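call fold(seq) -> tokens
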Amino acid sequence: MSALKLYLAIFVSSLLFSGCVSNSTYKKLETKHKMSQEELAATRSSLIEAKYLLAKTANKRRIQHEKAQSLAKELDEMKSQEENYKLRLEVMKAEQENLKDSLERAKYIAAMAREVTAQRERVLRAYLEKLQTLFSSSELDISIVGGRLLVSMPSDVIFPSGSDKLSDKGQETVKSISAVLAYGSQNQFQIEGHTDTDPIKGGQFKTNWHLGYARAMSVLKVFVSEGVSESLISAASFGQHRPRASNETSEGKALNRRIEIVMIPDLSVLAEGLDAVEE
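ret:
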């Protein structure tokens, strides 16, 4: 700008000195110069404003771009979450189906268990009623306990005192019982010997345990001779340690001296019918 002013001043001065420029011409030139300066200032102002607007626009675009990127990222995350939710939903649906299946299986198993229990009760009841027709309550104590048939015989009725050899009546009694209970080919048995608390005094048995076991084995041998498989029967002795009554009285001791036959029934007899047992 200074150079331009200087140039114009020199040009105007030279014209004045040369006497070739009139006063009106000078004013016109001065006016044009002023207008040129104003136009230049306006152009510069427009340029500054344009630069500002350009920078503002660029910043706005940058912000919009950043927002667009952020939104795109959020969209990707939402899509990923949606996929995860879908996957979890599918897993939950599968778990729900498995739960339904498990519940149905549990109901089925429970129903089968009830049916088996009912069937076992029927079988045991048939054996019990058959034995009750053959023996009086004074000879045998017959009951159903925990899904098993329990036949209790007083030792004094089937064994001589202090002996493990069955009496004639004892042999007959045990054979009659085994003939009924051996009907189920897979019935399982445990023969248990029980005694009172009176200590053994001499003889072949050292303790009540030994006496109880020897008597249980004598009964077991009769069952085997009547067709019960050796793999389905066992003998045990509890000696004096599972009394039914007090050992303080002779009556209580008589109740404690006993043989117990525990039977787990063969449910396959249901397929054949219970007629043979009930006859």
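Helices lie at 2-18, 23-134, 155-158, 168-181, 208-225, 250-256, 269-272, 275-278.
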